[in-house]
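Journal club side-thread
Mid-discussion, someone asked how the predicted structure for our own chain would compare to the paper's figures. Pasting it here so we can look after the session.
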Amino acid sequence: MILGSTGSIGVQALEIVEANPDKFRVIALAAGSSNLQLLADQAKRFSVPVVGTTGDRDTLTRMLGNTQVIDGAKSASDIAAIACDIVLNGISGSIGLGPTLAALSVGNKVALANKESLVAGGDLVMAFGRDRIIPVDSEHSALYQCFLSGKAAEVKQVILTASGGPFRDRIDFTDITVADALNHPTWSMGPVVTINSATLMNKGLEIIEAHYLFDLPYSKISAVIHPQSVVHSMVEFIDGSTIAQASPPSMKGPIAYAISGANRIAKATAPVDWNTKQSWEFMPIDGEKFPAVELARRCGELGGGLPAIFNAANEVAVDAFINGLIPFTKIVDVVDATVQKLGGNSPITIGSLSDVSAIEDDARVLANQLVQERK
């Protein structure tokens, strides 16, 4: 089944399914309210028996006829709890945590594209075991594959790669427009993920995600700028060897690998053209230009509710920037201020989904207040 089927990850996943009808059968779809027509078209095209939506149930039912429609705020979680081989969670934002937990609680494996599930509720998710999750993020899919080259005890460090976004070479960050921030040089993604790439907030989130996925201390997780976005991540072993996973920038490779249960599907994505001259660059991240990375690392190391606060505040700040309420330079500022003001009250442990929701609610209230102060 596919959660977030009308988003970028979901649409590409269905393209893979369509190209490989002998390997996949979609038993359920779930999506939000913004594109009911596309959701209905997908359900018809793939003969999906169950569909979930946060949109209008009656409208979708009229579009689909006899297809079972589940609606409401928890529709994605209800869909995720249907027994299947694997659930692709392509939902954007921390609302994806509930469906991740719902899928795992009934024994389903999860192809996880929703990084916020691990950032906000990593301890809750990992309580079900790492062997039930296959990462979809290109960086973590790369690490997953590279880890097959050695033993966990032989790993010296992992290196996440970052494109650097549209501003990696820019000196002055004033007067950056939303259009500027959405103009990513190598990837085509949704607006929130694209803005996170512009601030490098996404790399901070991915560092926290890598900590949980691979049970690594933060001291063994680093990140570098790689403008070409061909090497998706690397694992350095204690003998000095570094294993890298490389392919042209496309999410279809990681998606296909994950939804097939960590198996390779022929022609899932185009390979590197080794008959063409290649030039790959790697450079350190400028912490002064991109403070989000170290802020995320600090929140991750302190743990407890801080990563959830960090993530929720970022969602508010990015939305405020997209809607013209704050300038680009205030996104990380709002997140940092929220973390500092709420960090001292953050619980040491998170015991339930309701704990995460309460923490996030407090963070959103404060972040919205800080946005108003910085308008």
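Post-session note: The two ends are 42 Å apart (CA to CA).
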